[in-house]
Amino acid sequence: METYKLYINGEWVNSSTGKLLDVKNPSTDEVIAKVQSASEADVEMAVDAARDSFDSGVWSRLPPGDRSNILLKIADLLEKNQKEFIKLETENSGKSVKQVSGYDIPYTIDNIRFIAGACRTLEGKAMAEYVADGTSAIRREPIGAVGVITPWNYPLMMVIWRAFPAIATGNSVVVKPASYTPLTTLKLAELVENAGVPAGVFNVITGPGSSVGEQMARSNKLDMIAFTGSTEVGKRLSDLGSSTLKKVSLELGGKAPFIVFEDANIDAAVESAIVGGMVNNGQDCANSTRYYIQEKVFDRFVQRLKERIRQIKIGDPENPDTDMGPLISEAQRTRVEGYIKKGIEEGGRLISGGDRPKINGHEHGYYIDPALIYTENESSAIVKEEIFGPVFTILKFRDYDDVIRRSNDVTYGLGSSVWTSDITTAMRATRDLRFGTVWVNEHVVVPSEMPWAGYKQSGHGASLSPYSLEEFTYIKHVYFDITGKVRKDWYDQIFKG
Ligand code: NAD
Predict the structure, then answer these.
(1) Atom 3 of ligand 1, residue of closest alpha carbon
(2) CA 209, CA 207: separation in Å to the nearest integer?
(3) Which of 4, 137, 190, 308 is the most buried (most CB within 10 A)?
(4) Of the candidates 313, 261, 260, 267, which has an alpha carbon nearest to the alpha carbon of residue 288?
(5) Does any ligand 1 atom lie closer than 6 A to the CB of residue 386?
(6) CB of 297 within 8 A of CB of 397?
């Protein structure tokens, strides 16, 4: 069994205390690796490495094209080594190998290539004489040393989404992956090193969020925290970051509505409903979780959805036929089961699922059957809160105004979708839904070129797209006097002497 080290200042080191953490395979509950539990001194060392490398200018002052070439090299290395990454990610996260090999890793490679290209095209206002006496220009500059804290649901992808726009724009980073799934992030550090990123620019430390993550948020040597994870922890990081007023960029939870009007293509909607609800084993911030179905097509939609859910193949993530693997942990399964129970107690009717399936050879895995629940209780926890598991909550709606109001009536605002064949309904809904993404007749698709961003308590800032690079830069106004005069006309307004 491999024991991974911390990657600090270009060196692979043990934690100063020697304390290790187990990393498990969620489909078997077996320990598959050990990682270091970073101590306070280790965190300090990693923060210093990022700080010093940034202040030295060794990376931040490289022309964007040079940084871009190194990032492209990392993408090439990831592509070359993708088999190893696919195996590790599947084993550690419990997602189906079909999803990891067909989507997660190739998409992540595309994300890196996009970011590498985009860092050469940062924009600002045109240099010009906005007042007659001088020329103004915009410089875009990196923010500095950035702490990056990532979740377990897309372990490798989320590091790329947050740490790569940061380094592409010249920042240095300390990355702390989730303790459940740190392995591909540590492997990525090997590629970063081999591609020629200077020591100290990209550091990886592992350990509990409550100690390592909080120390990063409090540190006065980090200029920014980029966090992807739950809304609850996002709020905590905002509080901690406020002591130094560091920038805190937050990509948080979601509670996506999936709205089906009676004129929609119902078969297409059901296929997407399944994919949207169960992608990533139901642990995706964009998961369709609230299915609002118009009265007239309700029975047809639910009947078809029930039939198709039954056909989801739950099993060994490493089997290429498996559609859905286990949840990430026993705690997560207990949480999801708690929501199903609560949904029923609050008036919901369990239509199917919600049990623990028996998977041969994986009896200790954290499996759960996708649950289909119908409810008329709009204020039930299963309608309002992020469950983060395969729970399909079905609701009925009357008309446009009714469904838009209810869809918007949550604290989250990340993904949403609307299903209709009427262009006017579609256009109105894209305006009226208060979410960072509105899909029309689709759910979950996010090209590298487009932003993934939250409204309301789903956070702020953006991943992917050129906006994600802007997130990691300051805009500096530079002004040049072009008159050479000792006194400008406007000085009299302040001081005539
Ligand atoms: P989480 O908030 O529990 O943990 C995320 C990270 O924060 C982990 O690395 C964890 O160790 C760390 N952490 C935990 N407590 C901390 C603390 N007190 N201080 C500092 N760091 C701390 O989230 P999770 O369970 O890993 O991931 C699931 C959540 O992530 C869901 O809410 C999901 O919607 C969200 N998510 C959002 C996006 C997005 O793009 N908006 C993408 C993926 C996941």
Answers:
(1) 230
(2) 7
(3) 4
(4) 260
(5) yes
(6) no
Mutate to test the pocket of ligand 1, among 153, 328, 450 (most ligand atoms within 8 A of CB): 153
Give the pLDDT score at 463.
97
For 2-252+454-478, CATH gives 3.40.605.10
C-alpha span between 39 and 60 (Å, rounded) = 28
- The answer to whether the CB of 55 is under 6 A from ligand 1 is no
CB distance 167 to 59 below 8 Å: yes
Phi, psi of 473, deg, nearest 5: -130, 150
* Gap from CA of 290 to ligand 1 centroid (Å): 22
* Strand ranges for 402-472 from DSSP E: 415-419, 437-440, 452-453, 459-460, 462-463
Give the Å distance between the CA of 240 and the centre of ligand 1. 15
Task: Render pLDDT for 275-334 as a digit per residue (tens, 0 to 9).
Answer: 999 999 999 999 999 999 999 999 999 999 999 999 999 999 999 999 999 999 999 999
Q: What is the pTM of this model?
A: 0.97
Q: Give domain limits for the chain.
A: 2-252+454-478, 256-440
**pLDDT digit string, tens, across residues 153-210:** 999 999 999 999 999 999 999 999 999 999 999 999 999 999 999 999 999 999 999 9
Total H helices, total E strands in the chain: 16, 23
Fold of 256-440: Aldehyde Dehydrogenase; Chain A, domain 2 (3.40.309)
